[in-house]
Design goal:
208 residues, alpha+beta, 6-stranded mixed beta sheet, 30% helix
Length: 208
């Protein structure tokens, strides 16, 4: 074991709403703006968390075939997920149990539409088709993120691979300049660190 150090960073954004807009009854401009700012901060943190998982020393393996392969029968994402799980657990010194797959919406779409995957859900296929929620595949919780780049899928042990150290939780401040405007600020203070690269496996070459 080695000592790990992190330097927390403030993730924040602000916006200004005029006094005239703030007092308009049509929509709650202040609340809608604050919600949008909170989403932007959360997105920045999610992007950072995904980047942290690109740590040196993680396991990698190329997909048996691209998940969007023109030959439908060649698409075998379940095989690739199984190999990724095995690469994380196949170590006597640093063995982890994979529990989560992180996918870009592009790869998620082809996973949902994959014939072998969908046929394995035959008893509950109607519900899957209705909700689009597979839940788990090979014991892996499916986590979709637009910040995960395409052409690869991550399989991880979510509790052990990395840590987000939240020094201060998400906070909101509204500064009122009477008769002029309101300034909304949303911010969070923290940083992430990869603790166990071997608890991460990348499936590469998933996109044609």
């Amino acid at each position: 074991w080695g000592k790990n150090s992190i330097n927390p960073k403030k993730y924040g954004i602000e916006a200004n709403v005029s006094w005239e807009s703030a007092i308009t009854d049509n929509i709650n401009v202040v609340q809608r703006t604050t919600d949008a700012l909170a989403f932007a901060v959360a997105a920045a943190i999610e992007s950072r968390c995904v980047t942290i998982l690109d740590a040196t020393g993680r396991n990698t393996a190329a997909a048996s075939a691209t998940w969007d392969n023109a030959t439908v029968a060649s698409r075998r994402p379940s095989d690739d997920l199984a190999v990724a799980k095995q690469s994380i657990s196949n170590s006597k010194q640093q063995s982890y149990k994979a529990d989560t797959a992180i996918l870009n919406p592009y790869e998620m779409a082809y996973l949902l539409a994959n014939d072998s995957i969908m046929s394995s859900f035959a008893p509950s296929l109607a519900e899957v088709m209705k909700t689009g929620d597979l839940g788990f595949v090979l014991g892996l919780k499916l986590l979709e993120s637009p910040w995960k780049v395409t052409d690869s899928v991550k399989v991880v042990n979510a509790r052990q691979c990395a840590l987000w150290k939240q020094v201060r939780p998400l906070e909101t401040s509204i500064i009122d300049d009477a008769g002029i405007s309101k300034t909304m600020r949303v911010y969070e203070y923290g940083e992430g660190i990869c603790l166990a690269p071997k608890a991460i496996a990348d499936i590469t070459n998933t996109k044609t």
